């Protein structure tokens, strides 16, 4: 058994292979709800706000330590699609630039958020080529594109997009680039500033094991400086406690994307997940994931997925019929299906025996 399993409440039964959907609950996250949210509330009532906002600071610092950049570049959000909408709607409009570009293989919610910007004069265009091939993006990016929104890791294939190359292509035509890292943050090593993207959106629900409701955005300081979010509130203010209805000034950092009175519990909970993942180390989780994936491949063979998975994220996305799904379920494996694809993810809490079980089930079909 992996020594990291003791850090999590892993659902009982067979292998839990759903980190791409909802990571297992870390013990540290459970205790954070009590110490960061409930105890200050019980003891101080309204006076708990100093502690609650301190939990938000811890959340932002945790993300910066894990993904790069500085805490001021991160802003809590309810979810990925809302974060993306805020970023895109905040961009200054430029005549002749009205296209928002994403891949047709992106998570649908991304497309819904982008299409909803039509009243601002934008239109969604979907890339039909391979999103993991920079040439596909190069053919689609032109001076009429206002923003390019690639997924770092695609949820239904596991394919990894060349984010730095896509960002350079966008920058070359004057377009913004915003990357979705929901399926990679916490398993694939990331250094946000090194990509050269303008912004990123992500979730703590999956590989970061932070639970639902803790989305976030990262925005480069230059992007933030020219952004004018349409959806604001007192926590978007440079000084939220001014309380002057005639005086609104955007916060100088990414908090300008925040909005009104913030939720606290989801981010206090997520800070425990982030701390747990950081304590293990994303490079270590990535290497562990690769090692377990290789064990599956050694037993199941290349029939199920490519032997060389260097260009893929943390999730095994295999095309399989109902017999494979039934056999894995009968063996106690927890996984899911998207169309013809079965998705299985190995996190730090999974071990060799679980990988061997998956490989043997597939080999026996």
TrEMBL record:
Record-linked Pfam families: Aminotran_5 (PF00266)
* Swiss-Prot/TrEMBL keywords: Hydrolase, Pyridoxal phosphate
Q: Which domain of life is it from?
A: Bacteria
How would you classify this enzyme at the top EC level? hydrolase
Q: Which residues form the Aminotransferase class V domain?
A: 121-297
Q: Which SUPFAM superfamilies match?
A: PLP-dependent transferases
Name the InterPro entries for this protein: Aminotrans_V_dom, PyrdxlP-dep_Trfase, PyrdxlP-dep_Trfase_major, PyrdxlP-dep_Trfase_small
Q: Which GO terms describe its molecular function?
A: kynureninase activity
Q: Does the keyword Hydrolase apply?
A: yes
EC code(s) of this entry: 3.7.1.3
Q: Keyword Plastid on this protein?
A: no
PANTHER family, alphabetized: CYSTEINE DESULFURASE, ISOPENICILLIN N EPIMERASE
Q: What is this protein called?
A: Kynureninase
Native organism: Edaphosphingomonas haloaromaticamans
């Amino acid at each position: 058994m992996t020594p990291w399993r003791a850090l999590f409440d892993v659902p009982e039964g067979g292998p839990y292979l759903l980190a791409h959907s909802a990571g297992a609950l870390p013990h540290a996250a459970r205790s954070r709800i009590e110490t960061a949210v409930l105890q200050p509330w019980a003891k101080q009532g309204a006076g708990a706000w100093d502690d609650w906002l301190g939990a938000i600071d811890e959340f932002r610092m945790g993300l910066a330590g894990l993904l790069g950049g500085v805490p001021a570049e991160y802003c809590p959000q309810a979810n990925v699609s809302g974060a993306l909408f805020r970023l895109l709607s905040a961009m200054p409009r430029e005549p002749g630039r009205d296209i928002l570009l994403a891949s047709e293989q992106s998570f649908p919610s991304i497309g819904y958020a982008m299409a909803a910007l039509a009243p601002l004069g934008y239109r969604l265009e979907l890339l039909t080529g391979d999103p993991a091939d920079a040439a596909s993006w190069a053919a689609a990016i032109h001076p009429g594109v206002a923003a390019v929104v690639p997924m770092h890791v695609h949820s239904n294939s596991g394919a990894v997009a060349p984010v730095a190359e896509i960002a350079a292509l966008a920058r070359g035509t004057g377009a913004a680039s915003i990357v979705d890292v929901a399926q990679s943050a916490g398993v694939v090593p990331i250094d946000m500033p090194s990509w050269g993207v303008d912004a990123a959106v992500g979730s703590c629900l999956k590989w970061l094991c932070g639970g639902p409701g803790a989305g976030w955005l990262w925005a480069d300081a230059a992007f933030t400086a020219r952004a004018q979010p349409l959806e604001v509130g007192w926590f978007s203010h440079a000084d939220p406690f001014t309380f002057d209805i005639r005086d609104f000034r955007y916060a100088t950092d990414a908090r300008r994307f925040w909005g009104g009175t913030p939720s606290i519990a989801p981010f206090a909970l997520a800070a425990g997940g982030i701390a747990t993942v950081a304590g293990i180390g994303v490079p270590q989780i990535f290497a562990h994931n690769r090692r377990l994936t290789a064990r599956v491949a050694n037993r199941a063979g290349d029939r199920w997925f490519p032997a060389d998975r260097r260009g893929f994220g943390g999730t095994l996305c295999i095309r399989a019929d109902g017999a494979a799904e039934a056999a894995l379920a009968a063996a106690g494996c927890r996984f899911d299906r998207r169309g013809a694809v079965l998705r299985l993810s190995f996190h730090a809490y999974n071990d060799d025996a679980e990988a061997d079980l998956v490989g043997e089930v597939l080999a026996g079909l």
